Amino acid sequence: MSSASTLSSICFEQGCWFKGERKIRVTDKVVKRPSSMSFRVSATSSASKDIRIGLLGASGYTGAEIVRLLANHPHFGVTLMTADRKAGQSMDSVFPHLRAQKLPRLVSVKDADFSSVDAVFCCLPHGTTQEIIKGLPTTLKIVDLSADFRLRDISEYEEWYGQPHQAVELQKEVVYGLTELLRDDIKKARLVANPGCYPTSVQLPLVPLLKENLIKHENIIIDAKSGVSGAGRGAKEANLYSEIAEGISSYGVTRHRHVPEIEQGLSDVAQSKVTVSFTPHLMPMIRGMQSTIYVEMAPGVKTEDLYQQLRSSYEDEEFVKVLEEGVVPRTHNVRGSNYCFMNVFPDRIPGRAIIISVIDNLVKGASGQALQNLNIMMGLPETMGLLHQPLFP
Predict the structure, then answer these.
(1) DSSP β-ladder status, 276-282 and 289-296
(2) By 3-state DSSP, what share of the chain in percent is helix, strand and coil, each rounded to 5?
């Protein structure tokens, strides 16, 4: 038998499996879920997959990314999609690039039948999610991509988001979903608050260093840059092509809403209050995010110590890669993927180091990490549906 026919036999007669995943047969035969529950897998339509997914806020960029990623997921199939302003429309009329998928029509949240789903991705705008999630059946597993449940301190939420928290009791059971660092808690969670894009790119490199007391808690400076898709799909004058192209603009200076989320995570691991200097910038690109972080090392610590700590922390992680020494991470090299690339460089100022971390703001910074979290919550390999390689050029 030729090599080509052998590959065909393996893939189409026996089913395919991928790096980091258990053997999954893409046929109509009964197979075993990691939790030992049996189910059927079909490679045809979304509705025929065994775990039924509801997607709230499907008409935004993060909703569209969820749909794109789930197209290659063997178990998650979208059976419910909401978009109040687009209710009654088909998904391909809102996002023509998703035309090849068989998807349900969009409905308003008030008309959604949640008895037909097992889990929910919530991609609604900040400030609208708390009331809706509070009213969902308690049997559902939920990953919320908004900021509504990320801050544990209710008063801090009100201070930064300008409105009272509408689901105080529910907040108590929320697990923050920075996957690589909190997966044991995520496994047991019913409701996960998916991290913001900037906090993901900042915490992944800083948490292991703070945990080992390799850097000081003071004088952390974060210079972060994001593509325009991070601002959402809504029509805004500041996001027009003529406003964005051929220029860079800072925004949210000293008051960006991701600041308390970053400080919450860093303070938790440092076991003392950490305050950062954080300035985000809008770049004339569609997607991608880079955080350049300036830190002061603890006495006696060298840049090589930081590098080795990050290498050892993430050596077994699929989606976080510490590059070879001297290699500068680029947003182009993670575009469209769930990967975070990072590296550490010595500063010219003695005792300081520079850390560069890059992600795709819509994938690892939003929808990809959300899928990674739901995989864990459902007892599946966390890489499932996420092993797309970055898109380049």
Answers:
(1) unpaired
(2) 35, 20, 45
Whole-number pLDDT of residue 38 = 44
**Is the model more confident about 109 or about 29?**
109
The string of pLDDT tens digits covering residues 345-386 is 999 999 999 999 999 999 999 999 999 999 999 999 999 999
Considering the candidates 11, 122, 123, 197, report the single residue annotated as catalytic. 197
* Contact call for residues 28 and 52 (beta carbons, < 8 A): no
Residue range 162-176, pLDDT digits in tens:
999 999 999 999 999
8 A C-beta contact, residue 323 and residue 376? no
CA distance 284 to 230: 12
Catalytic, 11? Answer no
- What is the Cα–Cα distance from 55 to 73, expressed in whole angstroms? 15
Helix runs in the chain, H state only: 3-8, 61-70, 91-94, 129-134, 154-161, 168-171, 179-187, 197-211, 241-244, 259-270, 303-314, 368-377
As a whole number of angstroms, the distance between CA 32 and CA 382 comes to 16
CATH superfamily of 3-195+366-377: NAD(P)-binding Rossmann-like Domain (3.40.50.720)
Picking from 133, 108, 105, the residue whose alpha carbon sits closest to that of residue 46 is 105
Provide the H-helix boundaries in 135-288.
154-161, 168-171, 179-187, 197-211, 241-244, 259-270
Whether pLDDT at 8 is above 70: no
Residue 203 has φ and ψ, to the nearest 5°, of: -70, -35
Q: Are 345 and 303 spatial neighbours (Cβ–Cβ below 8 Å)?
A: yes
Bond preceding residue 350 cis, omega within 30 of 0: no
Domain boundaries, the chain: 3-195+366-377, 197-360
Q: What class, spelled out in words, does domain 197-360 have in CATH? A: alpha beta
